[in-house]
Amino acid sequence: MNTRIFVFSLVFLGLVSFHHTSDIKMKPRISIITLGVDDLERSLAFYRDGLGLPTKGIIGQEFERGAVAFFDLRNGLKLAIWPRKNIAWDAGIAEAAPAATELTLGYNVRTREEVDAVIEQARKAGARIARKPHDTFWGGYAGYFQDPDGHLWEVAWNPQMLPED
Asked: Which residue in 51, 103, 86 sits closest to 72, CA to CA?
């Protein structure tokens, strides 16, 4: 059997398929949000002990640039903390100064009281309160805190976007 007929037969039977890269599209999902940190142990303590996020702790220490911690969030989403210098090295870019306004992480809650409680929990864990909870221009109630590495979190009650729990 010649090669062309053999390949045609495999494709016809569905045993082999050919995809053009133009057929492959990014799907609307995020799997991991990785925050660059300066002190992995300090950040682990903040998120695990202070905020109560579930984790197996620091893994990958057997690799030169592999030490990382993952936190299990809802629906399979993971939050990771990894040293900034290792992110820069892995991505092949220069390490840059952190900027808190480049990205915010949003944590929506079901009540105004939860906003106050979560902001207070973050403060006790060592967060810097960037803006105390307040009524917002969009009809909700929100406050901001920064984790030990300056990452900005918004804790919000938005009557139009209540979480399931």
From this structure: 51
CA atoms of 154 and 130, how far apart (whole Å): 9
The position carrying tokens 């640039």 is: 65
One-letter identity of residue 45: A
Q: Are 145 and 153 in contact (CB under 8 A)?
A: yes
The per-residue pLDDT for range 76-92, each reduced to its tens digit, is 999 999 999 999 999 99
Q: Enumerate the β-bridge partners of residue 82.
A: 36
Q: What is the pLDDT of residue 17?
A: 56
- In angstroms, the Cα distances linking 154 to 82, 91, 109, 141, 146 are 21, 27, 11, 10, 9
Q: Which domains does the chain have, with CATH numbers?
A: 29-97 (3.10.180.10), 99-165 (3.10.180.10)
pTM for this entry: 0.82
Q: Which of 137, 118, 138, 140 is nearest to 129 (CA)?
A: 118
Token readout for 49 is: 């002990």
Edge-first strand listing for the sheet containing 78-83 = 32-37, 78-83, 68-72, 55-59
Instruction: Report whether pLDDT(47) > 90.
Output: yes
Residue 95 phi, psi dihedral angles, 5° rounding: -70, 135
